[in-house]
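Data availability (excerpt). The following record was deposited with the supplementary files.
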Amino acid sequence: MSFYDATVPAFLQILGSLSGILKKAEAHCAAKNIQPEVLLAARLYPDMLPLSKQIQLVCDFAGKGSARLAHVDVPSTPDTEKTFGELQQRLAKTIDYLKTFTPAQFEGGDSREVTFPIGPDKTLTLKGQEFLNRFAFTNFYFHAAIAHGILRHSGVEIGKRDFLGVA
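Predicted structure:
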């Protein structure tokens, strides 16, 4: 399996499933007469990030992670989304961006060094394979699972098949 095949399709699968989950969340709000802002601001615990930020981070770890692995300029993505529609657009833009990558751009990416921020004033450098497995994938799946958990905890009728994008 190529490094591209191990990376981009995995990101695309979950980004697509999150789009479907957000559609169900928006329909849940309409059916239960819940203001969308309530669900978008929902958290699993008060010190955790809200649903909207979870979706933004999922997009960042997929798009920016892929850019770093392909050694292309990392896109700037300000976090301005405040509605389901805007989050859907962010997911769609990230999906479209990932589809611009080619397998050739990832050749050798597993052994190339990747330097990335780990806070406001710190960076870390790892080989591409380590970066993907220890940072990009772990953060991507964490925030995707938390987004799913927030929605399920808030009463949206979704399950594992929705998370996997096979519902």
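Summary of structural features: The beta strands are 113-117, 123-127.
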